[in-house]
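RECORD TYPE: inverse folding
INPUT: structure tokens
STRUCTURE:
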């Protein structure tokens, strides 16, 4: 459903209207059909901060989406960290596989290609993965700003 219709249809429900505006603000800069600059400077800064933190995770270590967001100066925005990894250009070659969910859990469904790929990449770096989880000893703490 186009974003414009979501925003228009939400006018009758104030909580939905707020969510639709938030969604439009977050996704709007990244829409391919939008004329003009592709990102706002605020969105660029947040994405770049998250990408820099992910690049700083050492080989053979793992962090969580929440820790990445906190280290990027965006506390409470674990989902934004996941979004930033999802839209990252392939050319950045981000080590996305070093970021897992809370408790060291791979967040992709177990039988999905992404889950298998993340587990394979982590094992290649010497990280132990058992039943889609990474032991606490393999987790790294990131320096917060």
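DESIGNED SEQUENCE:
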């Amino acid at each position: 459903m186009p974003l414009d219709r979501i925003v228009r249809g939400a006018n009758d429900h104030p909580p939905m209207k707020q969510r639709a505006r938030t969604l439009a603000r977050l996704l709007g800069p990244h829409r391919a059909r939008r004329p003009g600059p592709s990102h706002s400077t605020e969105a660029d800064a947040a994405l770049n901060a998250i990408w820099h933190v992910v690049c700083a995770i050492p080989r053979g270590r793992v962090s969580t989406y929440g820790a990445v967001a906190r280290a990027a100066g965006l506390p409470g925005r674990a989902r934004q960290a996941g979004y930033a990894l999802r839209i990252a250009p392939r050319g950045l070659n981000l080590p996305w596989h070093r970021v897992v969910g809370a408790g060291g859990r791979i967040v992709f469904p177990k039988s999905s290609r992404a889950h298998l790929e993340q587990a394979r990449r982590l094992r290649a770096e010497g990280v132990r993965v058992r039943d889609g989880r990474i032991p606490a000893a393999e987790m790294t703490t990131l320096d917060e700003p």
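NOTES: Residues 1-10, 31-37 have pLDDT under 50 and may be disordered.
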